[in-house]
Amino acid sequence: xxxxxxxxxxxxxxxxxxxxxxxxxxxxxxxxxxxxxxxxxxxxxxxxxxxxxxxxxxxxxxxxxxxxxxxxxxxxxxxxxxxxxxxxxxxxxxxxxxxxxxxxxxxxxxxxxxxxxxxxxxxxxxxxxxxxxxxxxxxxxxxxxxxxxxxxxxxxxxxxxxxxxxxxxxxxxxxxxxxxxxxxxxxxxxxxxxxxxxxxxxxxxxxxxxxxxxxxxxxxxxxxxxxxxxxxxxxxxxxxxxxxxxxxxxxxxxxxxxxxxxxxxxxxxxxxxxxxxx
Length: 278
What we know:
This protein is an alpha/beta fold. It folds into two domains: 8-146, Rhodanese-like domain (Oxidized Rhodanese, domain 1), CATH 3.40.250.10; 149-266, Rhodanese-like domain (Oxidized Rhodanese, domain 1, 3-Layer(aba) Sandwich). It has helices spanning 11-17, 39-45, 73-81, 98-107, 119-125, 154-162, 173-176, 213-222, 242-250, 262-266, and strands at residues 8-9, 23-27, 52-53, 90-94, 113-116, 151-152, 166-169, 196-197, 231-234, 257-259.
């Protein structure tokens, strides 16, 4: 069943429901290793009250050499259950990988998940309460069921491109065009032939929120994409790609898929074609 409501919630909405035991706030902050930032340490220093830390590197397929790949359903269930999340829990995600957390829950069959519009930045600007330290929760049973239509593999993306399918690349434009080297060593520079560029940052406002539905649709259309047609989003490692997937859900298109391996896989393979320029 597809959810009918907006996948975003406001800070006011959350503040009014913060003590609701059926709502669990998750801080899904994540940074590239080159950023020199420790997301867990920053969470311990300050987070929204009752929030737990959702570590996309830990909640991943640790046997896969690619970064933070989606884990097996049973591993996801064990990890989020340990955070005090059950199948009846409404999850509200914030942080730099909030859209990734949103997509992961949906890919595991959990539709009770939202993203906090404006995140921690807007929350603190509005002088709302924050806590520090670890947040311990009573483990809860969680059942995960993979929705494979939301997760695309290398072969599926390659086939889609060969057949004129829509692939949205959410990396910065200079990386898409091959003008700037990838932040991960050993990867080719450029993009998948046939993919179109719509950087994830173009959907984000100056205060860390998201653009309006009208603006999101205009960005997608300007990039040459048809929001109403099937689409797969890709990026560097499957994090930024979840932002346009979130925007498409806002527009009523809930089935946008994400190429989980993204450029970390495509850019490392000898059998993957690479284009440069626009």
